């Protein structure tokens, strides 16, 4: 079972690298705005989780350089996720709010919708 999961994980990573979307061409101002946004979010993930791949691909398509933490291999990241978000389920996006509080967003579709909503106004300018 472990071997099959390992092989599937490798296949997922190969497919991800072969199907990477092209990032949009951005002006310096747009890039700066997106970088500022990227500093406020962290994706807790497993490398070979298909739902995490979906989020990573969506962020590439937006030209958003996502900070990621591996909640499978990195014990500290796993604890942060469990304590902050309430459970070890990935993907989970930690959103740092201006108030200093953090919001932990689960569900790949919700995360992608959130990132699209944040980035679209910047890249459509
Ligand atoms: N519907 C979720 C599914 C996420 C999911 O099933 N993630 C798996 C890893 S691929 C997980 O974290 N499982 C642990 C759990 O559910 O407790 C999404 O789209 O984000």
UniProtKB/TrEMBL annotation:
<protein>
    <recommendedName>
        <fullName>GST N-terminal domain-containing protein</fullName>
    </recommendedName>
</protein>
<dbReference type="InterPro" id="IPR036249">
    <property type="entry name" value="Thioredoxin-like_sf"/>
</dbReference>
<feature type="domain" description="GST N-terminal">
    <location>
        <begin position="39"/>
        <end position="123"/>
    </location>
</feature>
<dbReference type="Pfam" id="PF13417">
    <property type="entry name" value="GST_N_3"/>
</dbReference>
<dbReference type="InterPro" id="IPR004045">
    <property type="entry name" value="Glutathione_S-Trfase_N"/>
</dbReference>
